[in-house]
User: Fold these one by one.
Assistant:
Number 1:
Amino acid sequence: MSSQPRSPSINDVAALANVSYQTVSRVLNDHPNVRASTRLKVQAAITQLGYSPNSAARTLVTGRSRVLGVITLDVANVDGLAAMYGVERRAREHGYFVSTVALEHVDRSSMRAAVDQLAEQRVAGMLVIVPSEAADDALTSLPSSVPLVLIEGRPGHGIANAAVDQELGARRATEHLLELGHETVFHVRGLSDWMQTHDRVTGWRKALEAAGREAPLPLAGDWTAGSGYSAGRMLARIPELTAVFASNDDMALGILLALAERGLRVPEDVSVVGFDNLDASAYYNPPLTTVQQEFTAVGSRAVEMLFGQIERGERDDEQFLIEPQLVVRKSTGPARTA
Amino acid sequence: MSSQPRSPSINDVAALANVSYQTVSRVLNDHPNVRASTRLKVQAAITQLGYSPNSAARTLVTGRSRVLGVITLDVANVDGLAAMYGVERRAREHGYFVSTVALEHVDRSSMRAAVDQLAEQRVAGMLVIVPSEAADDALTSLPSSVPLVLIEGRPGHGIANAAVDQELGARRATEHLLELGHETVFHVRGLSDWMQTHDRVTGWRKALEAAGREAPLPLAGDWTAGSGYSAGRMLARIPELTAVFASNDDMALGILLALAERGLRVPEDVSVVGFDNLDASAYYNPPLTTVQQEFTAVGSRAVEMLFGQIERGERDDEQFLIEPQLVVRKSTGPARTA
DNA sequence: GCTCATATTGTGTACGTTCACAATCTCCTC
DNA sequence: GAGGAGATTGTGAACGTACACAATATGAGC
């Protein structure tokens, strides 16, 4: 029965401390011109009452909320998750909260709905971790002028973007295999409308072309280990197969299994490279050579870029690209001599 | 220079539609007694102005925000992530948002800080996905009376809890191995202060005891594949080893690698069972027998429980336990005959 | 001690919404 | 067509805070 006895407001604190509510407000917002003794009195009252500021009231009057909106995909993709933690931590360091909307499908209307919902919350800025081209398209058609930064989005839309240089990563992976003496490198790509898929294919193709080799047709995967396994079974039938670059570690795992089942040894017969450097991939059999991405760093950086926009009060199109590193493990070795 | 021309309010809509602001409010909140024609007029005005309600103002006056707070760990643990998506989706179906706080360390003070921050936001309820005993302790000592549901927490604290029956899962995993004729089952456990670690050890031990076997000393892991690998190297030296139950799939992966390196075949020489049923574990070499947990379902259910509390206006201690399923794959087989 | 600049504190108002209640309209019944 | 019940609409508050400005206190300089 006992209904909540309304939590204390700035006025209650003021009354207890014998000052005006405005003075309390000043203490809360760290205004300089408050006598030290007054400040102490107020702080004591705050503690005694267990007062905590009402962010709704604050948002209402200032017009800005200390909340950042994040739009993401609800498929459990590592990239997004890791970036999200980076975002959350950095935002909290700035005293901001993170409100998440997880999309099931990426299309213009669901994207629009997500943006509207966040706008309704009067978020101070938005981060979009939806690495599909459709997402970027949908965003450019949005009139909203809230500060906005993409994470792993497509550059060149006039929208700020923080990302890992996927193309560079793929090129390094491919070059590593070529340097080991492999004649060519097969590729298993990810879902077709993802940025990463496109960029990694490009990097792989460019590395091959630079070495004067013709790129074979890439095999279509969908990021899952299962699709890697299917691709692996296909690849295992190709006699001249000596090297594969998979667009992520999960698919590489499936490939490893498929090759093992066909009696092909890694790396003696076939070399395999992945992408992501999952924690687990160091313990695949054999441990996987892969490309490391610092997603958490990308997330943190994106938040900083967003705060830049928030402070200046307008969007910009800053671009941030971080270099991925190749991590060499036991799944790659010299090409077998035919 | 052109500063944002303040977004339209309920008053602007009222003026345009030639009604009072209160009528607009009624349309927004689906009150029954509004003439259809009036409703249409108002909705037209809303569309024309691109009006969206100000949730801060709404929260201020009603005292409740349409936001759910989630406290989680920022280590990328699958359990938490999957549960989170379940939470987010279900919350959004109810028209609620999810605000996340990711903890770096779990102790009383960081827990308290997280709760305070969410309280400051006036969240309608909180979900805690921090499966460590320390978290539960910290929560019981909190005076706050906000609706609260734990996900994978420890029951019996008088706090509502939604979880997978870890003990049952571990028992099923162990029984499966015993039924295959293994004399005993070794265990690699997770981090020591996690609920799951404790419950899975208990389930494993009980299954062994029920079969009249003595439980060997469990090996200490930390959930990572790396720790599983270390444990696996240790286990590989034990001559009577024929079966291992790892407390999660990642550690099982490490064990598989360690065993393979020592020339032990799975399942011919040693059977291995994991826990979690990661997407990838079906493609380990060999595909892993493991325990499947429906985290997304747990998350959804937790949200429902939370809304129950929110509607009733007080906490309760409802407990929800979901049964995990054993998924048998190729990493387990009959005990080798000595 | 007086003057004035500056430091400190206080007062009025607005933010956009919902709630409680008051006012008006509509239409049925007799 | 009067009465009244119910439907529909409107009015006056209040939520808790920050901003603009007004008022007062303090202390330095003479």
Number 2:
Amino acid sequence: MNFTDELVQWYLANKRDLPWRNTTDAYTIWLSEIILQQTRVEQGLPYFNRFVEKYPTVSDFAAAHEDEVLKLWQGLGYYSRGRNMLKTAQLVQQMYNGVFPESYDDLIKLKGIGEYTAAAISSFSSNEARAVVDGNVYRVLARYFGIYEAINSSTGKKTFQSLATNLLNKQNAALHNQAMMEFGAMLCKPKNPGCGICPVNVGCAAFLNNATTALPVKLKTVKVRERFFNYFLVTDGNTVLMNKRGDKDIWANMYDLPMVETPEMLPAHELAKLPEVTAMFGNELNITEDTSVIKHILTHQRLFVRMVKTTNTPLILKENWAFIPVDSLHELALPKVIFILIKNIFNL
DNA sequence: AAGCCGGGGAC
DNA sequence: GTCCCAGGCTT
């Protein structure tokens, strides 16, 4: 048996039972694929189930409001996925009359669908002969064929996509793709791969050369920026002043609190006198509580976040500010760290 | 081509 | 701490 046939045999004997594998409905598969971008199966699974229940068809999804989608997406990260899904659902409703496209060429044009996702949806829904290349496939191919080209260079991407396409079983694209990814996720793992029980170890360049830890090769480490967020809790117990974020920075269109960003974390008494703060509240801030600083890690940023409670109220409400009834707080999509800051105060 | 976009789990 | 996850969009 050749390499890919071995992996298919391994897959049939070892595959997990995952809900999106029991359908060929392009809409349902699309839901799963977007949710699973840069996301582990175990983390995405409960979100998939909630989305399928709330939006059984793409028409149901298209009728949703963005706040509602982001709320359902809360905690999953990379929120542009949720925002793009709504746009795509609305476009499919209008342009395709609610019938989700199945062809790669149609799918690749949609917001939030790139090469990987178009290949995944087209092959899983209609068995179109398109090879998926995700993180798992990069790793499996780099190791088995001993490819030291960086998987995140533009030439490397072409090399791996070309190799994956050549290897594709064009009669059984769906099964082939599932097998490649599941093998990478379950056995040919980033750390401690199961080489001892691997069905293709005798042909694996990395195994034979003791190079599994060196492959795949990936370029550069991301630069991490440090930021200091000072949030203000303005509440009378019945309502709380919330801010809807813009669409440029992190957590686009989600909700947090009024805040100032500082170049470093200041003691409360210095924060209270900051010109930016006194301008906002009319005079020196009266701080009644100050949380300990929470360190919150994102891919490109290390956030240091604190929240101060104040008896002051702002002079004027900025455009994106509103006093929200505490009873309605649970409807707002909150970034993880905001949820942590206020969950105990308002019983969220 | 490089930078940006979350949160969590394994080690 | 570091790495990476069924990646894609913007500049």
